[in-house]
Amino acid sequence: MAAVQKLKRCVVPQTGKHTASVIFLHGSGATPYTPMHGALSHVWFDRYKISRNCPEHLESIEEMCSNLGAVVHDEIRAGVPEHRMVIGGFSMGGAMALHLACRYHQDVAGVFSLSSFLNRDSVVYQASAIFHSNLNDS
Description:
alpha/beta; 3-stranded parallel sheet; 12% strand; LYPA1-2/EST-like; hydrolase; carboxylic ester hydrolase activity; palmitoyl-(protein) hydrolase activity
């Protein structure tokens, strides 16, 4: 499973009062990986195969969303409200950012995904549709 190691963080110290945060998630790195064969690799979540037309490996995505949620809550404890946070990433990190923000932290100021992907039937699409429907009902 992708989420076996403790998250390593690179925090840029603020020069003044800490009032906002950008959480940026890296891509899968230079190390190649084989989907679902138990090999250690630097990826955010497992994949059944490298294709947009297969189901997402939700167990590993959920585990990593929980781990990354702790990062968001650390920022909240430091005095930064969710509406002053942006979550984003590159490649697989961008996909992870979309899952984290669109499904669990919809109050963030923004989410971005650079050169990334979502599976064709991603649960992110469903979460986004529900969120926008709730906005329209308000």
